[in-house]
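Data deposition worksheet. Section B asks for the primary sequence of the deposited chain exactly as it was used as input, without tags or linkers unless they were present during the calculation. Section C holds the resulting structure in token form. Section D is free text for depositor observations; keep each observation to a single sentence. Incomplete worksheets are returned to the depositor.
Section A, Depositor: J.P.
Section B:
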Amino acid sequence: MTTKNKDNTVLPNDLNTLMAEKPNTTLIDLLPPDHFENVHIPGAQNACVFFVSFLDDLAAIVSNKNERVVVYGSSIRSQDTGMAIEKMARAGYQDIYELEGGLEAWREAGYDFLGDSPDSADDPQTKVSLSDGTYRIDAGLSKIEWAGRNPNTCHFGTVEVSEGTIMSKGGELSGTIEVDMESIHNVNLEGDELQPILEAHLRSDDFFFTSMFPKAVLHLKEVTPLEPGWQTAPNFRVHGELSLRGVSASLEFDTTVSLTDNNTLRLEAHFDIDKTRWNVIYGSTRFFEHLGMHKVFDLISLQISIVAVR
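Section C:
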């Protein structure tokens, strides 16, 4: 039998032989249960390595830690088996083997699968892929959080998205996001008598002058992919324009875009803006002297979560 004893790995054409020679060998599929139901290697049992209960689930299958266990994951690119083996070794399992290349190698070797969809193409779900269409922003599910600071403290809160649309075409995005500036809300002073005072100040002409400019608009002029396009990392760059307090200025930031199974588009971004670019100069030592306790740092941190439905 051709095994890589140094790394405790077995090749696909050795797995059946190993299990035949060692009848007490247990084969463990490390992927989520829904994936296991769709496709798995004959004879495998499921203990998902991504579950916090992984070791407990494994112990329910393998009670003897001296028993030989072969684990497999998705492919040679995925680190699922490495993570599982580390956890198992720390937990005291003594005889652990890995199917080299996982399910992908098993399929390439021409072996059969079991499951509800054993012959379907397996999307590794690692890179973002968008289809053309128009998405309407769901204001109730979208959220903008802000944080502003001075030398002594940090205030943070929310402001509501009112409406907007996002268009997807040819792998790029565009659209508009409208924000209700009257809805600006402070969170960290919740219940304190200073909370309404701070909120009124933020709405005043010292800051966002919401009686005159009740709406801010982020124009997504050009949203282009960032390679390689991982689903969990920033995968698009936004080239846009923010209209705020009567001033329009360019704005660039990176965002993580994802498309869920129910055709819901999500944009997640975290970045700072210099408020003075939109004529919000209150508290800035670039514009005023002898501010004393009235200093306010120029940068505002924004965390944006946009949900849009096709």
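Section D:
The two ends are 54 Å apart (CA to CA).
The CA atoms of residues 180 and 215 lie 5 Å apart.
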